[in-house]
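Tokens as discussed.
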């Protein structure tokens, strides 16, 4: 279960490297196969946690899908890392010293509009995210332990 109790993942404990299933934590919600085995899923969880706990981060909500792709251009998708949580279409990416999670904004999942995407980037060193300064039309929300103020 994720930290807010909204989403659950499960496996068959009697199988070596079992398939992972997930569902919304609501009564009557059926378990669905995620399409990955536990060994792959655990790597995805490690990447996800690294993004949220990184020393340096930047996020931007309200993006068009095209603008989100511009931001993520230097990164590559992590294989088999399409998630249904926090929204269907969320995916993990990695680049040189940088990790990202991006996807449709949660409140617009059922009708993904032109400006309903969000991206969260993270790095150990702020220099990995310096290319974001060239995207001056985006209102970044910075999370940094350095003197960078955005």
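Sequence:
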């Amino acid at each position: 279960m994720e930290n807010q109790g909204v989403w659950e993942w499960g496996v068959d404990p009697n199988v070596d490297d079992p398939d992972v299933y997930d569902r919304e934590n609501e009564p009557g919600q059926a378990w669905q196969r995620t399409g990955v085995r536990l060994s792959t899923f655990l790597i995805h969880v490690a990447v996800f946690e690294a993004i949220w706990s990184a020393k340096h981060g930047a996020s931007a909500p309200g993006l068009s899908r095209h603008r989100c792709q511009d931001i993520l251009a230097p990164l590559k998708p992590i294989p088999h890392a399409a998630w249904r949580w926090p929204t269907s279409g969320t995916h993990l990416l990695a680049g040189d010293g940088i990790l990202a999670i991006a996807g449709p904004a949660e409140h617009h999942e059922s009708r993904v509009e032109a400006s309903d995407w969000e991206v969260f980037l993270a790095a150990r060193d702020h220099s990995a995210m310096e290319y974001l300064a060239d995207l001056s039309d985006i209102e970044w929300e910075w999370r940094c332990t350095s003197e960078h103020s955005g």
